[in-house]
Amino acid sequence: MEIAMDPRHLFPRSGDGTQVPAVLGVSIALMAFTAVIISIRLWVRIFILRAMGTDDVFMIIGTVLTFGLSIAMIIGTKYGIGKHLGDIGEDDYAVWVTRLLYVLAIGFVKLSLLWLFIRLDRRRWMRMAVYFMIFFVAGLLVGPFFVTVLSCTPPAKFWNSEAHPEGNCMEMDAQQRFYEAHGALNIVTDIIIWLLPMPMLWTIQMSRRKKIGVSAIFGLGVLSVAAACVRYDSVLKLANNKDQYYLLADSLNWCSIELYVAIFCGSAPALSVLIRSFSPRALDSGYREQVYGSRRPPSIHACPIRAIKNLRGRQSEDVELCSQDAIITDSEPVRIMMKTEIQMEVSDAVQGYEKQVHDNFERRA
User: How far are the Cα atoms of 77, 191, 331 from residue 260, in angstroms, in the given order?
Assistant: First the structure.
């Protein structure tokens, strides 16, 4: 007589029960909250400020990818995420898509934040620092993306190795070391992105109370740094642990928390604009227009062109008006004064006409 062995006793268990409810709760709650935040951001940019920037495009892409990650996590609970290894079938090991979406989502969200910093501070050293971080973050997006895609050849071997015996995969130890290094670099970039706007904010001429309030909005990024650190700890726990799918729930939950907090931090200025539009005295309008754009559609690579007319009334040449939205000292403690530098280029025709008028005037004299 054969005794059936319960497969749950053949595998080590890192905890009791299941983490499926935690995965579902975190994913659904954060998706709903972020959908509201992004809707407010788009409403402000389209209908109040009437201007969409590159940072908005990156943030929308990052949000869609983050929603995709949450949906993949929810679907993944059916195929093993949050369950003990002995409670799932051998053909249900599918987490490949969550790795791919996390790498893409965190990259686009960070690019959105960095592009916002370019709009806020146009000093040369700041722009160089931000551009360096953009290239670095882009590298962190592209590199891990291809490592994830090519970790198994063909990729389907990652989730169904028996169906592709001819393929091969990267060693698990090598994958673990790679994702540990990627997690550490993510924390470093989170800290740098969190600190980048602080020097600019504290050079603004306004009351200390307002400085603290403005800094607090951007300072929320420390929550994303904290989430990244906790996620990194959960990644370390996956090393040499046979019950990885149970522990994977914690890692994925903190991945999504890190992403959603970063999205909220990047969209927080839009909330101040919305509050200001309904309650004019609630927030300072100078801060609103500087931090989240003016009612004039902004452009950081091009300047609006205005046509001028010469003294005879004929249109002669275009004049380029470049607005450098620098913040300078203001005597009023409740407002931020905007400095606008205007550079004008006038055609030779206008200059020649002015010289001719001047010569005629001298001859008559």
Answer: 20, 16, 39
